[in-house]
Amino acid sequence: MTAYVCALETVVPSTLLVQDQAKDVFAAQPGLTRLGSRLVATCFDSAAIETRYTAVRELNLEHTTDDPQFFDPSSGLLLNPSTKVRNEIFAREATPLFIEAARAAVNNCGGIEAADITHLITVSCTGFFNPGPDYRIVRALGLDPAVQRYHLGFMGCYAAFPALREAAQFCNADSDAVVLVVCAELCSLHVRTSNNPDTIMGSALFADGAAAAIVTARPPASAGPLLRLDHFETVLTPVGEESMAWNIGDHGFEMVLGNYVPHIIDQHITGALEPIFALPQLAGSTYTDVTHWAIHPGGRSILDKVQSRLSLTETQLVPARETLRNYGNMSSATVLFVLKHILQEAGTEDESVCSMAFGPGLTVETGLFTKMARGTSAAFHA
User: Fold this and answer.
1) Which terminal residue of the chain has fewer beta carbons within 10 Å of its beta carbon, N or C?
2) CB within 8 Å of 321: residues ≥ 6 apart
3) Which of the 8 DSSP states describes residue 50?
4) pLDDT tens readout for residues 144-177
5) pTM to 2 decimals?
């Protein structure tokens, strides 16, 4: 039994952050040391990001409120709300993103209706509440109350892979399974002013967004583009456990993103790809033989290291670089934005896709997929 992504949809909040404007706000905060000021300028300028989106409307310079919690436009100060306040906003603002992405995926999957959903997997590492987003989606979309629900929490940027892998396993076990996977992250809830390099880097990179996919082995009612889920692998690098982490503090979640992370990826990326390139369908292939590379854009330097180490072309990096430039790093949802970019590209024959994401540990999740040519519904197996 083979599982396919039959619909992949993305959504972002309505509040746009322009990188240069955000840099000016962070650079103007009191308490920054001279080194901190230089780091703000360097991190924001080198991030290769032009725009991001946030669910925190106060972060838009034109927004006004009588009770600011994150940003006071009258003073230009970034505020520092408690983790409780940030999480309450997550529950309020993440819910509509989860629902909007889920509804878009169901509505744009030919032959699949809400009543057909048998499993629901939700993903987030930027907040918690219960009844959670899985429950809210069931109610909002009118799913069967008996739908099997699972939530993958606090895994980080690579979490879309375990979600898709789990969805594929459900479909492999039951040919009638239809799995709705929804990732939503509000990373901007946890930004703050600081002289800490990790915190500054997070403020320069992270953003909000959501993505949803329908995974099934059922034949589609209409032609693709479709993504066949061929194989998944997980690899832990032998070093780097302390270089990337995600902790809960009194004033939000605290990202540890050491500047050595790109070097760790550079040193160990080929080893992480060995299980994928040992598969029969890639026997004797080189990295450049793979048509598409869907790389989680954890940051510009990470993409640069991957491209250099694997000798990938500029064209192969376009989906990841454009996602980073237009949306920033949205944690688990980001690689689904990259995959959607690839699916929207024109193609007349089946094309290979190698995808990867990095997270705490240091964990490297990889997947080998096939972008199916339009009109290939016969490729489905009953």
Assistant:
1) C
2) 48, 297, 303
3) S
4) 999 999 999 999 999 999 999 999 999 999 999 9
5) 0.96
- Give the burial string for 313-329 (b: 16+ CB within 10 Å, else e): eeebbbbbbebbbbbbb
Q: Per the structure block, which two tokens stand in for 85? A: 């306040």
Percent pLDDT > 90 in the chain is 83
Q: Which region among 45-59, 128-142, 253-267 has the lowest average model confidence (pLDDT)?
A: 253-267
Per-residue pLDDT tens digits for 213-245: 999 998 766 666 689 999 999 999 998 888 888
Assess whether 171 carries a catalytic annotation: no
Catalytic residue among 43, 109, 125, 157, which? 157
Q: Show the tokens assigned to 364.
A: 């490297």
Query: Rg of the Cα trace of the chain?
Result: 20
Can you tell me the distance from the alpha carbon of 170 to that of 365, in angstroms, rounded to the nearest whole number?
19
Distance of CA 215 to the CA centre of its chain: 17
Q: What DSSP letter does each residue of 93-138 carry, written as one string?
A: HHHHHHHHHHHHHHHTSTT--GGG--EEEEEESS---SS-HHHHHH
Phi-psi region of 98 (alpha: psi -120 to 50; beta: other; left: phi over 0): alpha
H-only helix segments in the chain: 19-27, 34-46, 83-107, 133-141, 160-173, 197-205, 261-277, 300-310, 314-327, 334-344
